[in-house]
Amino acid sequence: MSSLSNEARSLTWLVNDFVAEVPGVTDAVVVSADGLVLIASDGLSEERAQHLAAVASGINGLAEGLSSLFDMGSAKQTIVRMKKGYVIVMAISDGSCLATLAGPDCDMKVVGYQMTLLVENSGHVLTPRLRQELRNEVRHDRRSALPPPSCWN
Q1: If both were cysteines, with which of 31, 32, 101, 112 could 36 make a disulfide (CB 3.0 to 4.6 Å apart)?
Q2: The domain spanning residue 86 has which CATH number?
Q3: Model-level pTM?
C-alpha cells in the first residue's frame, strides 16, 4: 500500500475508520461503476470483497434502472434487510458506490448518516485518476498473491 498516493491512502483509511467506528458495521467496499473493488475494509477477504462488490454493483444498477424508468431522479441509497443484517449501497459518483454490511441490531439512522458523511466527504476525491490508481493496486495485489511461475510446472 505504500505505493499509493496520499489521496488513495486517505480514502482507504476513511473506509477502515468508518467500519471500526460505526457500531454494527462489519465490512465495507468502495466499488467502481464496472463492479471492481477499489477499496475493501481490512477485515474482508478478497473473495468476500469481490462478492460484495458484484452484489453492490448489481443493486446499484437495478436501483438506477428503476429510478430512470419511473423518472424519479438518480438512486441515492438502497437497503436490503435480511434476517441477520443489512446490505446498504450508497451511490458515490459516476456509477461508483459504497457498500456496507451491518448487523441486525445496528442503528440504521446512524449507519445511514455516517455513510452519507463518508460519501459526501470523499466523493470529490474519487476522480478518474484515483479510480485507475486503485484498480491498478487491486490488480497488482491479485498478481502478487499468485505463486511464482516456476511452481506452476
Answers
A1: 32
A2: 3.30.450.30
A3: 0.85
Q: How far apart are CA 89 and CA 63, in angstroms?
A: 10
- Per the CB < 8 A criterion, the answer to whether 74 and 66 are in contact is no
Any domain includes 152? no
Specify the number of domains making up the chain.
Answer: 1
Q: How far apart are CA 80 and CA 60, in angstroms?
A: 12
The string of pLDDT tens digits covering residues 115-126 is 999 999 887 888
Q: Can you read off the three cell numbers belonging to residue 24?
A: 454494527
What whole-number distance in Å separates Cα of residue 95 and Cα of residue 97?
A: 7
- Using alpha carbons, select from 15, 22, 4 the residue that is nearest to residue 122: 15
How many Å apart are CA 1 and CA 3, to the nearest integer? 5
